[in-house]
Write a structure and sequence with these properties.
Number of domains: 1
Bound molecules: zinc ion
CATH topology: Collagenase (Catalytic Domain)
Strand content: 15-25%
Largest sheet: 6 strands, mixed
Number of helices: 5
CATH architecture: 3-Layer(aba) Sandwich
CATH superfamily: Collagenase (Catalytic Domain)
Structural class: alpha/beta
């Protein structure tokens, strides 16, 4: 006798329902991806947080700047320390689109007032309130923000080689239009405040945000050249305090 295994109709229906249920459950547990998750757009180089503002003294795009050091002001072992930051900024000349390159032109006995000349020297410029011990002094033949020649003045209070290097990297930032950013986060920019004078702040080269701000500064230069910082200063109200503590000053005509 043939035996047939027959499933009762009721059970068949139950299995069908179970299968459909399982498929639905799988769909709920593994929903198909219809769109990619979008991160909120946050600028990584927000001015005042991770990036300095720009708009001050600037070497003309693609300048070849000759750099001199007042030999009598520095020890022999300090010379390479002063020159290293020039290379750090040279290394980002293309990335920042400034095209500005510094070339060491030797030691001198007095500041050099020639076109595209920068002299590094010592001088009493330390301000206790701001802990700034360096200053950029510049002159523009057209009374605009484009530097004709300049001096980086470093206070004798800075003797630590690392602090000296940090100070030079910072001052060169002022050579590209960058302003101080005391509210910026640590290590986000070389334009940050020095917390302790004559101690290293660990900043030896421009950051990604510094580079992007210099790029923005040179982009602006293509269409708009600002007046020199000193001319701009005269234009503001008498009672208005300058925001920048070490606003670069103008070298008087020799
Ligand atoms: Zn500064």
């Amino acid at each position: 006798m043939k035996t047939r295994s027959l499933q009762p109709p009721a059970l068949k229906t139950d299995l069908t329902v179970l299968c459909v249920s399982l498929i639905l459950l799988a769909a709920v547990c593994n929903p198909p991806v219809f769109s990619q998750t979008r991160e909120p757009t946050v600028s990584p180089c927000k001015v005042g947080v991770r990036a300095p503002a720009f708009g001050f003294w600037t070497w003309a795009a693609n300048s070849q700047v000759k750099v001199f050091i007042l030999a009598a002001h520095f020890k022999t072992e300090e010379i390479p320390v002063l020159l290293a930051p020039l290379e750090s900024w040279n290394a980002v000349a293309e990335a920042s689109s400034s095209g500005v390159k510094f070339t060491y032109a030797g030691s001198v006995s007095e500041p050099q007032y020639c076109e595209n000349c920068l002299t590094i020297m010592r001088g009493k410029v330390y301000e206790k309130k701001t802990r700034h011990a360096t200053k950029l002094q510049a002159y523009s033949v057209h009374a605009d923000q484009i530097i004709s020649y300049a001096e980086v003045v470093i206070d004798p209070i800075i003797t630590n080689p690392e602090a000296l290097k940090n100070a030079m990297v910072h001052e060169l930032g002022h050579n590209f239009g960058l302003l101080d950013c005391f509210s910026c986060k640590d290590r986000s920019t070389v334009m940050n405040q020095f917390k302790v004078i004559n101690f290293s702040n660990g900043m030896e080269a421009p950051t990604a945000c510094d580079i992007s701000q210099v790029k923005a500064a040179y982009e602006e230069l293509k269409t708009h050249v600002r007046p020199s910082p000193m001319v701009a200063k005269v234009m503001v109200d008498e009672g208005e305090e300058p925001v920048d503590d070490d606003t670069p000053t103008v070298i008087p005509l020799p």
